[in-house]
Amino acid sequence: MQPSNSWVCLTALDKQTTASTASLDNRGLAYADGFFTTMGVINGQILWAEYHHQRLISHATALQLDLDSHAILTILKTYATQLQQGMLKLVITRAAQDIRGYGYVPSECGSKCEVWLKSSVMTVSTAEQWSLNDKGFIPVQPVSTAICLSSQLACLPPSLAGLKSLNRLDNVLASAELQGIKANVFTSNGERDISEGLLRDMSGRWVEGTMSNVFYQLSDSRLVESPSSELINLPNANKGNANKTHANDLMQGQWYTPSMAQSGVAGVMRQVIIDELSTTKYPVVVRSLQDKDLPHLSQLFFCNALRGIMPMSSLTLLSGEVVGF
Fold first, then answer.
1. Beta sheet of 45-46, edge-to-edge order
2. What is the pLDDT of residues 7-43, one digit of tens each?
3. Half-sphere exposure at residue 293, Cβ-oriented, CA atoms within 13 angstroms
4. Residue 42: CB partners within 8 Å, gap ≥ 6?
5. N or C terminus: which one in the chain shows less Cβ crowding within 10 Å?
6. DSSP 8-class letter at 214
7. Element (H or E) spanning 283, and its range?
8. Would you say the pTM of this structure is higher than 0.85?
9. Which residue from 203, 143, 212 is spatially nearest to 174, judged by alpha carbons?
10. Which of 1, 169, 165, 17 is nearest to 94 (CA)?
11. What SS3 class is residue 144?
């Protein structure tokens, strides 16, 4: 196996090569023609391995790629055992085509692809843990704050919406905006801990964070119309308590999460939480988050597969108003 923190090509499963053999004609580099997934590893085990496996299957199908997901998962588990604790990043791109330009030759089983893996030793930090019904757990990070960003996400066709594709330029620009805000805030007021930014798409609906999905609760039930599709619920916590980090309290009450049908990434951790709460008294409700809702938020957290749940104590709106939870 290759040393940690280096890229290895898994395309030829019996003949792995290093990144030095990669071609600049790679379609992921030229056209962002592919997808990726990032996995946390604790005690040699991939967190949410089956969910990442389902992403491999669904994304390969959506992008018409011929990917042996079972063989890839077996290799990933071997790397995780060696890594013990850290991060595995998997990048899948369509193989070079004989056709010039964007086009590719469709086939019954999908296009050949290149598979790249990077393993990195790092501490997967956990302030607390939310224990799950299957005896697993979700890491819960320390409470911090969030801010609404002016950057916007692209609205995508149904075939691409929700995918973790390689085209993440809207998130790149949004992350740069967030870093600029954090630098200015910390220069003038080092006490504020802004860890994530909330993003709208081009339709004006608030969808996700720069690197995460978002869940929220509302203090005004009159704002909630009858759900037309999916559900997710969590119990309400008391507004204004910035130190409420107890995982069991956090995951109580009616929770909502925006739809990924038009923009954003349908994250692994988002689905884990939806599934975990699906059999409770309050399953999660998939509901759009609009400007009029923001002053009525009573609870908010972001989440991703590497950091788990990131609870927020406040959200700064575009107007400068701060909504505390």
1. 17-18, 7-9, 113-121, 86-94, 34-42, 45-46
2. 888 875 545 555 545 567 789 999 999 999 999 999 9
3. 23
4. 85, 124
5. N
6. E
7. strand 283-286
8. yes
9. 212
10. 165
11. strand
